[in-house]
Each structure stands twice: as C-alpha cells, then as structure tokens.
Amino acid sequence: MTAPDREVLTWQTFGVASRELAGQVAASGYRPDIILAIARGGLFTAGALGYALDVKNLHLANVVYYTGVDERLPLPVMLPPVPNMVDLSGARVLVADDVADTGATLKLIRDFCAGQVADVRCAVLYEKARSTVRCEFVWRRTDRWIEFPWSAQPPVTQRSDPR
Asked: CA 21, CA 19: separation in Å to the nearest integer?
C-alpha cells in the first residue's frame, strides 16, 4: 500500500479531532451516562471524549477483529472480561471507537447493548462508506486505510495469542 492510499492521523491532529467530535456530541444535546470504549483503538477516543464531555464513567469492551492491514477474522469476537450489563442497564451509552470500517465491531457492541440500555449512540473518529453501521457522531469520513499514531509502529514484542 503506498502512502497516498493512507490517511495519517498524528497525535496533534488526534487532539483536535477528539475535541471536535466531543463538540458534535455536546451540540446534539446527547448527554451520555457512560462511555463504552471498544479496545484497543477506541480507548484513546473514549478517554478524550470522557474528559471533553465530563463523563467519568468509562467502560471497556475488548473486541478482536483485525489481524493485520486490511486483514480480519470472519467475525469480531468479544474477549473477556465482558462488560457487566448490570452496570450499563438503563444508561445512556456512547460507544467510542477509532474507526467504523466494516461496521461489524460496532454492530456487535450495539447488539450487545440492545434492550439493556436506555439509549446507545456511536462516536468514531473515522467512518468508511462500507460501514454497515452509521454512527451518530463522526469526525471525518474516508475510504483510505488509516494510520493511527498508537498503531503506526510495530509492537516492541510479539505475542502469539490475541489476548
């Protein structure tokens, strides 16, 4: 993949992007009780949104789907520990992730929350046209591969299992 085929997000631009994304949420009048981060990329987005929206109640859903650049498992898989629905019950939940690529991961989490929470909405930095989930809050739309600052370099050590 050549450089023009990539969207590069720097740490500095991430600061601007996450603040603008939070501005969209605030301007809409949506007031989440909980921000549910989709790990790993959504951790950064959720943390930034939590500070900007003054939401201290952050939860985490560990999902594995991507195995490499544009390579993924047949379906996303939620890894333990799975969020406790008692903690989410009746809450307004903002699901945060870095990208809505195929939409499969966001659909998994939305379906997980369905009927259990008062309201669930999604906020992502990037959304691609092929995503099956249309997010309520999107900073930028692109169909290019995105290079995020947190995953731009290879790990300093390699694990054999995805956990």
From this structure: 5
| CA distances in angstroms from 128 to 7, 46, 73, 100, listed in the order given | 12, 19, 18, 6
| Burial classification of residue 155, based on how many CB atoms lie within 10 Å of its CB (0-12 exposed, 13-18 middle, 19 or more buried) | exposed
For the segment 95-139, what is each residue's pLDDT rounded down to a tens digit? 999 999 999 999 999 999 988 999 999 999 999 999 999 999 999
Question: What does CATH list as the number for 3-145?
Answer: 3.40.50.2020
Amino acid at 59: H
Which amino acid is residue 143, in one-letter code?
D
Alpha-carbon gap, residue 96 to 88, rounded angstroms:
15
Per-residue pLDDT tens digits for 54-81: 999 999 998 886 666 666 767 777 888 8
Which stretches of the chain are assigned E, i.e. beta strand? Answer: 6-8, 34-39, 58-68, 71-79, 92-100, 119-127, 137-141, 145-147
Going from N- to C-terminal start, the domains of the chain cover 3-145
Tokens of 75: 């379906």
